[in-house]
């Protein structure tokens, strides 16, 4: 890849569901993390040298805790709105789990090893936690928001003094911003805490993910009182609800803000906004408070074009960093071997009728642009009812793949389930797949609409009607690979996926 030569960049800079981003600079490197909710591994870690081109370099969370709570899918729970910081020679990530409390992990390097999750504050409805170490005084602080669904409280921010080693809090906490007292403000959440120009600053969104805005709050004292101002909103642009992200300053002194935009089934895509701090004043984001679509690139050395990986040949049966399970994984779901290809066990399950309930679905994000997704599949499971396939997974889902019927014949099947349905049904009639092999394709078109087709050796043929992908409550639609079988005794065989590709349409 050649270094970038254009003078501008175009938003979004991450065109997929990298929800609730936060960013930090260490030296000449920028690092970003995002919400991962109930997927494992969690807390993705991205790297950039120019704030425009990003690569996925790992995850900070190998399993969700408490482990038993995430043995089955909980798509909208788990890791909400993390904060990434660098302090005392270590990387730190804090997040709120709305059902359990505020956790942190830390590591000497971005690639780890990361510590096991440490519970900083237990409780229901504690979300969107962010720390601050005040380098001038040596004191440490923590701010978090509230989820009404668990606590009955929302639209306010609570602040604590924190132990400098981040192992616990030093007080019971105090509401430092109550947005119920600010006319027109609602759903205040996602705070990011900074110290700048002698003041404490909280950058926090309000107004909801689809129609909200980015706010800024400032005070001479951490516990307030705070002044507020709207610093980024949609205005007459096409960027709805521009908010929730992080501020970062380059080594050369430029300021930038990374935030998300909610795009339905595509999830929360990431935009990069220019940012300035007028002396003694409020930050100015975007084009005088409106999001930019195209802008001059940051004043940083040109970098090769890059994006988080999607394609995978599964060498030795291993899958790339872009994949996550829908719950804490168990031994035996994927088998390592000497060749290429992902060999998945046909896991027996009483929930074989509904992919949304299965922990053993391997997923990655749906691309935010029209794309063609393809993968080769071979079904080796001999058990009647053994099946495997490629899915678009959300509140509603659809998949195409192979299944062995009661007579032992492998057939090409295409199935779906509506949002309210408790079981899937056929989207098209089954067709014989004599060799137990097929190449599967999903073509996405604008509006996250998906067209399914298959190749049994005679070229691709369409199947079923066009499907409109749907998100989960807070998560964009996912691409998924799976293998399963009905409840029974003994090993149900395997399925092998090879040559997974995502390309432009």
UniProtKB/TrEMBL annotation:
Keywords: Glycosidase, Hydrolase. Residues 295-314 are annotated as: Disordered. SUPFAM superfamilies: Arabinanase/levansucrase/invertase, Concanavalin A-like lectins/glucanases. Residues 312-501 form the Beta-xylosidase C-terminal Concanavalin A-like domain. It comes from Streptomyces rochei. PANTHER family: BETA-XYLOSIDASE (PTHR42812), BETA-XYLOSIDASE-RELATED (PTHR42812:SF12). This is Family 43 glycosylhydrolase. CDD domains: GH43_FsAxh1-like (cd09001). Belongs to the glycosyl hydrolase 43 family.
């Amino acid at each position: 890849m050649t270094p970038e030569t254009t003078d501008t960049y175009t938003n979004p800079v991450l065109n997929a569901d990298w929800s609730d981003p936060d960013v930090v600079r260490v030296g000449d490197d920028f690092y970003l993390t995002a919400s991962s909710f109930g997927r494992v591994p969690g807390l993705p870690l991205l790297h950039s040298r120019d704030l425009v081109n990003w690569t996925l370099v790992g995850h900070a969370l190998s399993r969700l805790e408490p482990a038993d709570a995430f043995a089955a899918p909980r798509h909208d729970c788990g890791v909400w709105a993390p904060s990434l910081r660098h302090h005392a020679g270590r990387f730190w990530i804090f997040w709120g789990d709305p059902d359990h409390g505020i956790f942190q992990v830390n590591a000497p390097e971005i690639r780890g090893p990361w510590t096991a999750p440490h519970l900083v504050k237990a409780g229901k409805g504690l979300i969107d936690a962010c720390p601050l170490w005040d380098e001038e005084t040596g004191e440490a602080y923590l701010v978090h928001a509230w989820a009404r669904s668990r606590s009955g409280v929302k639209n306010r921010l609570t602040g604590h003094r924190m132990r400098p080693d981040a192992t616990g809090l030093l007080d019971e906490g105090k509401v430092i911003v109550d947005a119920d007292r600010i006319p027109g403000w609602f759903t205040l959440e996602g705070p990011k805490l900074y110290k700048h120009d002698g003041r404490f600053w909280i950058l926090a969104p309000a107004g909801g993910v689809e129609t909200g805005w980015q706010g800024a709050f400032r005070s001479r004292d951490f516990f307030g009182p705070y002044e507020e101002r709207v610093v980024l909103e949609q205005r007459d642009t096409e960027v709805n609800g521009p908010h929730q992200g992080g501020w970062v300053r380059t080594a050369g002194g430029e300021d930038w803000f990374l935030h998300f935009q909610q795009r339905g089934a595509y999830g929360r895509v990431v935009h990069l906004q220019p940012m300035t701090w007028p002396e003694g004043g409020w930050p100015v984001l975007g084009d005088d408070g409106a999001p930019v679509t195209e802008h001059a690139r940051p004043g940083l050395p040109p970098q090769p074009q890059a994006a988080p990986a999607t394609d995978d040949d599964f060498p030795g049966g291993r899958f790339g960093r872009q994949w996550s399970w829908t719950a804490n994984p168990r031994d035996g779901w994927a088998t390592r071997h000497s060749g290429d290809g992902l060999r998945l066990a046909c896991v027996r399950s009483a929930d074989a009728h509904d992919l949304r309930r299965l922990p053993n679905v391997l997923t990655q994000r749906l691309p935010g642009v029209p794309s063609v997704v393809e993968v080769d599949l071979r079904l080796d499971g001999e058990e009647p009812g053994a099946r495997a396939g490629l899915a678009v997974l959300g509140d509603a889902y659809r998949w195409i793949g192979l299944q062995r019927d009661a007579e032992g014949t492998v057939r090409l099947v295409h199935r779906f389930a509506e949002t309210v349905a408790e079981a899937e049904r056929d989207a098209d009639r089954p067709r014989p797949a004599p060799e137990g092999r097929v190449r599967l394709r999903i073509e996405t078109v604008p509006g996250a609409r998906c067209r399914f087709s298959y190749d049994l050796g005679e070229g691709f043929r369409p199947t079923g009607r066009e499907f409109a992908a749907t998100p989960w409550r807070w998560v964009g639609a996912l691409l998924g690979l799976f293998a399963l079988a009905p409840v029974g005794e003994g090993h149900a065989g395997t399925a092998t996926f090879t040559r997974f590709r995502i390309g432009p349409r």
